[in-house]
Structure formats: C-alpha cells, structure tokens
Design goal:
The protein is α/β, with parallel strands linked by helices and 116 residues long. The protein has four helices and seven strands; from the N terminus they run βββαββαβαβα. The chain has a single domain, classed as 2-Layer Sandwich (Transcription Regulator spoIIAA). Helix content is 41%, strand content 25%. The protein has a five-stranded mixed β-sheet. A hairpin with a 2-residue loop joins strand 1 and strand 2. Helix 1 runs parallel beside helix 2.
C-alpha cells in the first residue's frame, strides 16, 4: 500500500499540489489528502491548484476529501481549483455533483494565469 505522493510548489502566492500517484484507491491516501488540503487552508493559503494529470483511477473517498477541503476554502474565502483532470475522473466529479462546485482548468498554466 503506497502512501500519497505529492510535489508541492508555491508560485506567486498560488500553492500547487501535484499528485504523483496514478491510482488513488486506498482509504489511507484519502485521509492523507484530507489532512494535506486542510493544513493548506488552515495555514492561510488562499489559492490552491491540484494538478491530477497522473491520476487515472480514483476512489470516491477522494471526492469526500476534496469536498471537505472545498468547504474549508470557502470558509476562509480561498480558492481551490483542479487542473489536468482526465475525462474519467471528470465524470466522477460530475456523478458526485461536484463538477460545478470546483473550477477545473485544462492545464496548470491556465489555472495559474486565471488565479493571479
């Protein structure tokens, strides 16, 4: 069981979280994601982009993690967006009713430009 693998970068006040795992199925990984994103907003981050270009399969537990973090972001008047979302993952967001809840950008560079 592999833990959550991420690369984090701050670029001009925008925190970028790049998920390296191609498959996100483990409950432990979802818990790690919830903790990671919660810490981002609790520490004062106002703009977070989650790049999931490597992710090809994802458990519905991750949608819960994203929803929890999205609520924390809204409470703090912060923004959480996604980029490089594979069509199968986008379908999951839509099926869970989250497609309209989060902004999704086709590429990381587009997300960074729009969140300046």
């Amino acid at each position: 069981m592999a833990g959550l693998q991420v690369i984090q970068e701050n670029r001009n006040g925008i925190n970028i979280i790049r998920i390296r795992n191609p498959v996100l199925l483990e409950p432990q990984q979802a818990d790690e994601m919830t903790q990671l994103l919660s810490r981002e907003f609790e520490s004062g981050s106002l703009k977070v982009v989650i790049n999931i270009s490597n992710v090809t399969r994802m458990s519905s537990l991750f949608f819960r993690s994203f929803l929890i973090a999205g609520k924390k972001a809204k409470e703090r008047k912060a923004v959480m967006a996604f980029c490089n979302v594979a069509p199968t993952i986008k379908t999951g967001f839509d099926m869970m009713g989250l497609g309209a809840y989060f902004t999704m950008y086709p590429e990381e560079s587009v997300a960074l430009e729009n969140l300046k």
